[in-house]
């Protein structure tokens, strides 16, 4: 073909030849449609078409056109015969002789430069097209770059773009000059076409993403590294204008800090008692602990973003719907100090493993003498009870044989100390692998035989769990799980830990037995590590309301009172003897004279406070009876009633025995009311231990 085109014809013929050549090129290029047919077939089929083209375009005679066509066809046939027959696209690079195609890669080669290698001469390889196919195998060449994927289709721009890659290859090594057959030429014509269409795609100028140092936010579609997480916390706290503080609660086995963020001023106060508007109360304390198990990363974004929002001085209007202040956020910050330890197991998190660097399950590592049952023995651990999961087995193994050695891990000790200092009124540790809010207790005995050992405070813990699950868009619908062929039903997405599956040595049980505080074990995502991006991104959005409500209400619902010397106003200590409801924990008296008791709405709590002055035990005080009822239902607690309404705020002024008058205490409830309440209490039966629906509970109490 080349020759023909480059020959020196007359002017009139020039036009004709150009047209014919172009037509042939196009036809040939498109002739490969049938993969196995080979180019020849294409050429034959194009005879009629060529003739027409000649006649119409060149205006020559029919005979002339026919002869020209015949010649062209012969030439094309010869050319094609030599080259690899089979489909050019898939055709593995033929022997070296064929290899030449690669050189074509550089689509640039303008038509002129291509030397006139006698196409026919090239056929050095073999005569028959089939021969060419068979020869492929021999190609000692690392034809690996099969890219020589020949000329796809002439017009397709894609083909031209794909070629670029191979060019770099040393394709031409062997007799490069050889038969730069049709494919090469084909390109020349199409090149212009592709260029035309290409223009549309405008080059999108993307500015490189700003480095993390400049943007104190994280790509929540990914799990942040420990370093990113640490930086995020530092930046958020630094930008909080004093609202938040950051400290290390201790070090992991591998030396990583267990970051603990304090949101709000621990020494801050608020004024909850309308009857004593000038008496400041210490704020309530709530705590969240994230990622105890290093492979349960899904909720890391929730705890981090909670910190990010609450530590941002502008967060309230920014995050609230419609840009209006979120009452929950405002109230939480005004009345409560929130403590968040987002990553308890940084080593496991970094390694994406459940255990810490010593291979110990941290949520089975809190066993102490405070537990009401003996330390499990290996026999306990291996005595897997029917109907239970392997959790107990792991528990005892961790404690005695699996690296636990009966001792507490560094992370465990650090968090124990942190919790002992914080003493949260309400708290939760966060996990993944299920969707449920689990409450005390997690273990009933050292063998995991008993699956139902409610807290003495039951059903309070169960309702506390409802505060979380019922404010969550999907947790409330979590129906249950199968555990070792035993079906466990969740109620509103809540369950008692041991009923789900016994686990010995959990942090929640430790806090329960040691400090009599309620800590929920929250399973926030069905998948531990591998989560959908959407779930990662939505983790905070789906948990925000629950986290705010639990933290903002949990520490306030019930009695919050100050105990002071009626004369000096000095804070006093006291021993408290509860009367109602039976079995419930007595109100706790903290340093500074704060008397508090988490209470069930609608239930009457009563008892006697015996004040004393730890600094001067020679002084005696009159006993102070107390009684209160949170005048709301659990439905109200879940979301409706403002935090302030759920708290019974009082100031008890203790009168010294033999002291001035008998003003006694200033219990808000009047004597008549107390009597009435006590009578009612006697008629009431202690609340059942098993959690019940708010409606049921309410009716029962009433
Ligand atoms: Zn877990």
From TrEMBL:
Stretch forming the signal peptide: 1-31
Recorded superkingdom: Eukaryota
Biased composition range(s): Low complexity: 660-684
Biased composition (Pro residues): 93-126, 138-157, 165-180, 188-213, 685-694
SUPFAM superfamilies xrefs: Zn-dependent exopeptidases
Stored SMART domains: Zn_pept
Any one GO BP annotation for this protein: protein processing
Active site residues per record: 523
InterPro entries: Peptidase_M14, Peptidase_M14_domain
MF GO annotations: metallocarboxypeptidase activity; zinc ion binding
Keywords tagged on the record: Signal
A cellular component term, taken from the record's GO annotations: extracellular space
Span of domain Peptidase M14: 222-566
Positions of the UniProt region annotated as Disordered: 67-217, 660-702
Gene3D superfamilies, A to Z: Zn peptidases
UniProt similarity note: Belongs to the peptidase M14 family.
UniProt-recorded name of the protein: Peptidase M14 domain-containing protein
Organism name: Chlamydomonas incerta
Lineage of origin: Eukaryota, Viridiplantae, Chlorophyta, core chlorophytes, Chlorophyceae
């Amino acid at each position: 073909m080349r020759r023909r085109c480059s020959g020196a014809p007359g002017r009139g013929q020039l036009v004709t030849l150009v047209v014919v050549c172009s037509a042939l090129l196009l036809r040939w290029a498109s002739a490969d449609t049938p993969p196995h047919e080979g180019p020849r077939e294409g050429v034959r089929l194009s005879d009629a078409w060529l003739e027409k083209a000649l006649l119409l375009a060149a205006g020559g005679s029919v005979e002339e056109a026919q002869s020209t066509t015949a010649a062209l066809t012969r030439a094309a046939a010869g050319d094609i015969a030599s080259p690899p027959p089979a489909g050019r696209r898939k055709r593995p690079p033929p022997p070296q002789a064929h290899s030449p195609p690669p050189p074509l890669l550089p689509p640039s080669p303008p038509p002129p430069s291509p030397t006139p290698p006698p196409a026919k001469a090239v056929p050095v390889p073999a005569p028959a097209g089939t021969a060419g196919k068979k020869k492929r195998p021999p190609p000692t060449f690392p034809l690996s770059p099969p890219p020589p994927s020949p000329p796809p289709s002439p017009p397709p721009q894609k083909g031209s773009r794909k070629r670029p890659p191979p060019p770099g290859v040393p394709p031409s090594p062997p007799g490069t000059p050889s038969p730069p057959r049709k494919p090469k030429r084909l390109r020349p014509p199409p090149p212009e076409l592709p260029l035309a269409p290409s223009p549309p795609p405008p080059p999108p100028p993307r500015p490189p993403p700003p480095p993390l140092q400049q943007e104190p936010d994280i790509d929540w579609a990914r799990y942040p590294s420990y370093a990113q997480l640490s930086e995020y916390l530092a930046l958020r706290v630094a930008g909080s204008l004093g609202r938040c503080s950051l400290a290390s609660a201790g070090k992991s086995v591998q030396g990583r800090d267990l970051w603990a963020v304090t949101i709000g001023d621990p020494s801050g106060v608020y004024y909850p008692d309308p009857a004593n508007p000038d008496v400041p109360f210490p704020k309530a304390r709530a705590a969240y602990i994230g990622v105890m198990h290093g492979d349960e990363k899904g909720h890391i974004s929730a705890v981090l973003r909670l910190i990010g929002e609450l530590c941002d001085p502008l967060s309230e209007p920014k995050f609230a719907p419609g840009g209006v202040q979120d009452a929950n956020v405002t109230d939480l910050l005004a009345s409560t100090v929130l403590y968040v330890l987002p990553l308890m197991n940084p080593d496991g998190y970094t390694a994406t493993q459940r255990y810490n660097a010593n291979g110990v399950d941290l949520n089975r590592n809190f066993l102490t003498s405070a537990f009401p049952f003996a330390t499990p023995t290996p026999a306990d651990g291996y005595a897997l009870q029917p109907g239970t999961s392997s959790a107990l087995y792991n528990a005892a193994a961790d404690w005695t044989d699996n690296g636990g050695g009966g001792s507490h891990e560094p992370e465990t000790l650090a968090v124990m100390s942190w919790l002992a200092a914080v003493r949260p009124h309400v708290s939760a540790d966060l996990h993944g692998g299920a969707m449920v809010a689990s409450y005390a207790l997690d273990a009933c005995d050292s063998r995991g035989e008993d699956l139902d050992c409610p807290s003495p405070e039951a059903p309070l813990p169960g309702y506390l769990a409802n505060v979380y699950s019922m404010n969550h868009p999907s947790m409330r619908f979590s129906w249950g799980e199968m555990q070792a062929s035993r079906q466990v039903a969740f109620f509103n997405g809540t369950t008692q830990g041991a009923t789900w599956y016994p686990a010995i040595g959990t942090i929640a049980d430790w806090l329960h037995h040691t400090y009599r505080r309620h800590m929920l074990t929250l399973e926030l995502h069905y998948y531990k590590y591998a989560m959908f991006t959407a779930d990662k991104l939505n983790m905070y959005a789906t948990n925000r309301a629950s986290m705010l409500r639990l933290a903002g209400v949990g520490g306030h619902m019930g009695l919050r009172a100050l105990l002071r010397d009626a004369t000096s106003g000095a804070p006093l200590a006291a021993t408290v003897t509860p009367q109602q409801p039976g079995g419930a924990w007595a109100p706790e008296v903290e340093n500074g004279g704060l008397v508090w008791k988490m209470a069930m709405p609608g239930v009457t709590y009563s008892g006697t406070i015996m004040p004393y002055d730890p600094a001067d035990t020679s002084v005696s005080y009159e006993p102070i009876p107390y009684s209160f009822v949170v005048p709301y239902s659990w439905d109200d607690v879940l979301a409706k009633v403002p935090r302030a309404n759920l708290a019974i705020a009082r100031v008890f002024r203790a009168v010294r025995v033999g002291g001035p008058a008998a003003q006694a205490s200033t219990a808000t409830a009047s004597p008549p009311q107390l009597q009435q309440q006590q009578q009612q209490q006697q008629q009431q039966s202690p609340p059942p231990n098993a959690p019940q629906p708010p409606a049921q509970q309410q009716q029962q109490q009433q």
